[in-house]
Amino acid sequence: xxxxxxxxxxxxxxxxxxxxxxxxxxxxxxxxxxxxxxxxxxxxxxxxxxxxxxxxxxxxxxxxxxxxxxxxxxxxxxxxxxxxxxxxxxxxxxxxxxxxxxxxxxxxxxxxxxxxxxxxxxxxx
Length: 125
Prior knowledge:
This protein is an alpha+beta fold. The protein has helices at about 10-20, 70-95, 110-125; strands spanning about 25-30, 40-45, 50-55, 100-105.
């Protein structure tokens, strides 16, 4: 478990690089809302856009998640808890006027960055 990074993962770094290349600037690993005890991977405070780079295993990707064969009950519950927290985070952000964008680790960084840029620019305009 120590080897699993909380930030600066390869997919997250690739996404940040692609977003930066499009000319967008952002905060890294920050709480979008101070009272919210959750951090977004990229935060565009002015546009009120929070981006989360979700790992396929940890967040239960419908395309790539494969249940663990060892200690499966524990891991199944862990993934379900993560998914519930993600839904709650999205709801809280929406209630506060934010948009939450979730990018799966398997998504190509370029198209994901374009999707993020479109939303940020529309809300900054």
